[in-house]
Amino acid sequence: LVLVSSFTLGEVRLLTTKITMSDLRVRLVQPAISQKAKWTAGAFDELFSAYVDMSKAAPKNGRAPDVIIWPEGALPPSLDVLLSNESWTAPVMAGLLVDKQTLIMGTTRRVSDAKGHDIWHNSMVVLHQDGAQTRIEGAYDKFKLVPFGEFTPFASLTKPLGIEALTHFDDSFTAGPRTRAVTFDHLPRLLPLICYEGIFPGLDTTNYRASTDTLRPRWIVNISNDAWFGPTTGPLQHLNLASYRAIEEGLPMVRSTPTGISAVIDPLGRVLTETRIGTGQRAYVDATVPNAVTLSPYAAGHCLFAIFCTIFCLILVAFDTCVLVIKKNRVRGEQVHLG
Length: 339
Fold this sequence. Notes:
This protein is α/β, with parallel strands linked by helices. Helices cover 30% and strands 21% of the residues. The protein has 9 helices and 10 strands. It has helices at 2-16, 35-38, 44-56, 79-82, 89-94, 155-158, 234-249, 297-300, 302-338, and strands at 21-30, 67-69, 102-112, 118-130, 133-141, 190-194, 219-223, 253-256, 263-265, 283-290. It starts with a helix and ends with a helix.
């Protein structure tokens, strides 16, 4: 009954929900470079040029994008190196955007903690062009880190054994605050998800009261580095799993990866075919982001959903236990009667 009811409600939602488009235009940039080639000596110039050329290319369908999105860990150098006054990349980055345009990029970010020690974050950074000035609007630091890929569990025990995270510096990433919807100037409120954060339901535990709740995000931005998967079905599986976050929240998702699959997903979890950039394809695509739809029951009460599932499972366990007890008593009674 639960499965049939869920299927029926899902079909009704698909048939009766009207998808409308917002005024927000985005450009997804996919350079199609493998993880190994990305870190090959001498490859940086080509990779950087690919990002710059596609970001500055003439708009498709007439209107220039409001937002350009680069994937997770787009470039090998950290943000402070890319924007350093001594770096040749800094003036290029300063001239990348046109006036009132925004860049969302995945990058490694180095900051200092309260004790003055350097710590590293896997971050989503937002830059905005205001006249002749490019400024950093803010950043989201990844909360759900990959064990051994981004940090070393029980480092005090594993490092002496030579087991370290697969980062390109002598340290692990540090997790940021718990994932939540954030607001940056010049952008609709968004829910940021970096890489495999997109496969976890309910990282944002906020229970929104209504579809018009001002705290509710208007879209999801998922940047990922699916180059790790290589020529496997991994990118397709990752895209499929990430699309469930759009379904749960009733929000459109914009997904950017360096090797595929990049796409815009509507708030019912369906990939907009014309926005899809396949695995291994070097391309950019300009797309209009759909509007959010009515708040889903899941998004309205994450805790209530978890409580319902727990109570339902407990009822099943209790029912099963009662059935077993009744059966045992019946068999015992029959044996006594026959004896």
